[in-house]
Amino acid sequence: MSIFYRKQNHRDLLFKKDLHLKRRTKEILEVLPAEYGFDDFLQAFIDCYPAAWEDIINYCTERRSDFYRRRNKGLRTVPFYSPPLYLKRNCGWNRRRIEVLSDGERQNRYNKLVEKGQKKKSQRDTRIMKNLERVQEVTPSYVRDLITAYFQTREKDTLNINARYLILLEASQFHSKETIEFLHCVATCDKNDELRDIAYQSLVRMGEHPWKVRKRKGRQKASQLKRIDLQKNPTELLQLIYINQQVLYQSYDVFLSHSSLDVKELLELKQTLNKQNLVVYIDWINDEVMLNRPNQNEDTWNALELRMRQSKMLLYVMTDNSICSPYTEREVNYFKSLSKRVVVYQPHGTTLTKPEYIKNCESLNLEQLRNISNIYV
């Protein structure tokens, strides 16, 4: 058997193991009526295990896409199945039932399984939504350039792990078809264990189900063993951006001048702007690793200046917290010095007086904010 088929079989085994089909089939058979067919079993499985059923749908869809992609390239393929057929072939739905319950007890167990399954699905959806709050639902024009730069760097400058790490950080901020395919490719194919693990964790946070590749055995090259050795602080960020300008294409439509205390308002605002296909810069999201609060230093402001030069407009989120922030006035004045547009949005009432430095700036209401891409950008 070729390496390709061995890998596919191994992946199938891991997926089936995670599904726990033997246990779940036994539980469903206990709550089915005396006379049942596969359609009855399928509906009970969907009702009782909605999260597992969603995993099966995603897995079968991925296998289908992979089949046609490889076939179009003339490569070896593995057959794919529809989700119902996959379940039918692997679950053993027609096995003999060990215990036959009364109608009342059977219905009671069925209701408990449904309640438990819905709760698990809800918890998972909530966890994924919370993770996606810090990911942008937009595809910047430079994403393909970033992906191309990653593979060019891997080919021409194999030991430059830090540059590839920065590209991964940037790409993993965007939840789009291109970045998900790219992260899947890195998670399964890159030879560097550390980069592969970063891509894997990014996909898990996005609610994807990546394949956990085992560490390679035998003699390893320097590119496989080299670790990410950069210091996670603003000074290092600036140096790496200047050194790797040819592979880092960051640009932003909107720079949010804000207070980090207004987390809820800022996440809602980011979502509103993303729906208009606008790329938003928020320091504790876009540069969460390199501008983390404990490691800030004298270059923090220099890094923010760089990000403002990369942004088309500044949106000042006026709240009591932002009015008291020492950074917002400096950000607005710097943006004005660049002769770029500064606009103000007030999500709710404030108790403090409107600052002098924004009194001559344009103001937006909620309706204008929802249409800001057509008005300003």
Structure description:
The chain is an alpha/beta fold and 377 residues long. It contains 19 helices and 5 strands. The protein has 3 domains: 130 residues, no CATH class; 87 residues, no CATH class; 124 residues, Toll/interleukin-1 receptor homology (TIR) domain (Rossmann fold), CATH 3.40.50. Strands 2-1-3-4-5 form a 5-stranded parallel sheet. It is globular, with a radius of gyration of 26 Å.
Please describe the structure with a list of short key phrases separated by commas or semicolons.
377 residues, alpha/beta, Rossmann fold, 3 domains, five-stranded parallel beta sheet, 19 helices, 6% strand
Distance between the ends: 56 Å
Radius of gyration: 26 Å
Note the overall shape. globular
Q: Count the DSSP helices.
A: 19
Sheet of most strands: 5 strands, parallel
The counted number of beta strands is 5
Helix content: 55-70%
Name the helix and strand elements from N-terminus to C-terminus, one letter apiece: HHHHHHHHHHHHEHEHHEHHEEHH
Which parts are unreliable, with pLDDT below 50 for 5 consecutive residues or more? none
Structural class: alpha/beta
Global mean pLDDT: 86
Task: Give me the side-by-side strand order of the main sheet.
Answer: 2-1-3-4-5
Beta fraction: 5-15%
Number of domains: 3
SSE order and pairing:
Layout lengths: L2 H17 L1 H11 L6 H11 L1 H23 L10 H8 L12 H30 L10 H14 L4 H11 L5 H13 L3 H13 L16 H4 L8 H10 L8 E6 L5 H12 L5 E2 L1 H4 L13 H10 L1 E7 L2 H5 L1 H12 L3 E5 L16 E3 L1 H4 L2 H4 L2
Parallel strand pairs: 1-2, 1-3, 3-4, 4-5
